[in-house]
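S.,

As promised, the magnesium ion run. Input:
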Amino acid sequence: MAIKLKELAGKEERLVPGHRLCAGCAESIIIRQIVNAIEEPVVIATATGCLEVASSVYPWTSWRVPWIHSAFENASTTAAGAEAMYRSLVRQGKIEDKDIKFLAFGGDGATYDIGLQWISGTFERGHKVIYVCLNNEAYMNTGIQRSSATPLGASTTTSPAGKVIPGKTQWRKPLTRIMAAHDIPYVAQASPHRWRDLMEKARKAVEADGPAFINVISPCPRGWRHDSSMSVEVAKMAVETCYWPLYEVRNGTEWTLNYKPREKKPVADWLKMQGRFRHLFTPQFEHVVEELQAKVDEEWERLLTLCGE
Amino acid sequence: MAKSIVKALDGAQAVSNAMRQINPDVVAAYPITPQTAIVQNFSQYVADGVVDTEFVTVESEHGAMSACIGASAAGGRVMTATASAGLALMWEVVYVAASMRLPLVMSVVNRALSAPLNIHCDHSDSMGARDAGWIQIYAETAQEAYDNTLQAVRIAEHPDLLTPVMSMQDGFITGHGVERVEILDDAEAKKFVGTYKPKHSLLDVDNPATYGAWDFYDFYFEHKRQQTDALSRAMPIIVEVGEEYGRLTGRKYGIFDPYEMDDAEVAIVVLSSTAGTARTVVKALRQKGIKIGLIKPRVFRPFPARELVEALKGVKAVAVLDRSISFGAMEGAGPLFLELSAALYAYGNGRGPLAVDYIFGLGGRDVIPAYIEQVAQDLLHIAETGERGDLVRYLGLRE
Ligand SMILES: Cc1ncc(C[n+]2csc(CCOP(=O)(O)OP(=O)(O)O)c2C)c(N)n1
Ligand code: SF4
Ligand SMILES: [Mg+2]
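Predicted complex:
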């Protein structure tokens, strides 16, 4: 299980440079950590979104592994179809069993919103698909529109901060919990700044030998309005403030907290790093920061209880 | 000729039997009336171990087509079945399947679209998908539905084509109507469909490829041109497969079925089960010395434009019977009429027959021989007077 940097350095990259993600985009960092952590051959389905448009511009491809894009909402089911075919052909003796692992990548829009039904079906049917949500908390590919992963108060192009409305007026969907409620073998939340934790989670997902879901926070310099050099720091602060706790859930019941900040930082420390929350630091809207803090506290306490902490 | 057995089957059973013999590697499907029986029969085959298929019991039709896309890209034989709202729900990915050139076969049991909700037959569902890039084949009988399903596999997987095939039959009328159906001997059917050897597969991890890439304006157009070219090449392949099937079974299939067309002065063109009713009427009228003929198109996509114009040469008046409306089209005509009119204009050298359209049978409205007799009378009048009259008419409708 232990991941050694030296070994990693010698491995062939599965997502190669030259893709068109923005400088500082966390998506490529996350993908590389995940696919490079997996030893076995992989087949990857990707939903429409930043990653897809940036990595598969015909006639080029950034993928050194078999990769497919079909639509926005159905990466899970596309991977499930390929996985079903693999099982069928192996069972019939038509192809050799190469221990292929099936992955699906989708943004938060693809995962929390439009693709939720497809993922739920894929998990219920028990396909051995590892679904990874690259959660940048908005529809970035189409120009920073709100999703159900966008937090309260964030200014997006469809929940803009205005003279009377302070950005998004709803909290966020508790998606990781919803996925855990499918009672699948493995569900986790992760962050790219804790790369070893994320890579180990990718391996655990493989070893869980069933449907798995990993929700990874993915800072987006464009949409979150922070410097492109700050993505990893911003991810780190999301975890240090307990806005984005790192935990895993096995079989829907065994909850484990993977990281507990020594000192829980105020969520404002994280908000201040990002332009999308700038309007909250005005007398008119500062109450939203308090509401946000209350939400974070409530979820954190609940998680601690679930994890037996 | 190959061995076969005769059975009393409804159209759904006929198609499920073909699917059993094809033994697809993956089937992903979702139940909807009147296709449900196909999914249920096939589930039983899976439960009884008579097929090797991995049956993916998806949560929706969009999921069905999505799983089919992933499965087909993974290099095996894949089938599904649907109808009506199911086909409408999978719309987006129906296009994706064709554009990724995945040789799927989808059985469609034609049913009206909502609203109002209606579970009975018309062709609105598959006609709405006519520009999605699939080959479309329509069956008159359960026998044809069976035969077309076997042939569809060969057509779709033809290396020059690699284009999915939609195989239609009429909901309830054919789908639930029990008929005499000749089922090929299992071994013969399997030999006919052969094995599928994909050129590329997602599972070929040693030769990784990217599927469903993102095209800008610099390549998209060329890809679409390749796609339309493939469909234009389909007709001889469909004919070749139909002839081979004929040698095997004695039932040869072509692009369309002409009946009493040799010296016909007026003609009816109609798809699917209604062609049976029309044939009975034509036969009776012929006995009275009326020079009427019938054309039952089998292949609607690609549209056999030149072939139909040629077949209608010498005909003075033609009536198209459409079981759907292309809303907002010229006088609210149906798709078959619109296609045929365009064909007559493009290839008829200005000498084509006068053509009229009859919308009929929407939402399962029954079509009785008297309606077809009325069409024949109208045609004779048009042929005699040279006056076309109303372009679009309705059969069996209370006005
Ligand atoms: C059915 C459908 N609806 C809408 C779109 C437009 N669209 C493409 S990507 C996208 C947003 C993607 O957001 P997300 O999944 O969060 O990925 P990100 O780009 O943020 O990484 C949208 C709305 C689409 N392609 N298909
Ligand atoms: S917009 Fe954001 S998520 Fe998209 S590529 Fe740029 S940084 Fe990455
Ligand atoms: Mg997003």
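The mean pLDDT of chain B is 98. The pocket of iron/sulfur cluster (ligand 2) is lined by residues A 21-22, 25, 27, 50, 54, 136, 140, 220-223 (CB under 6 Å).

- D.
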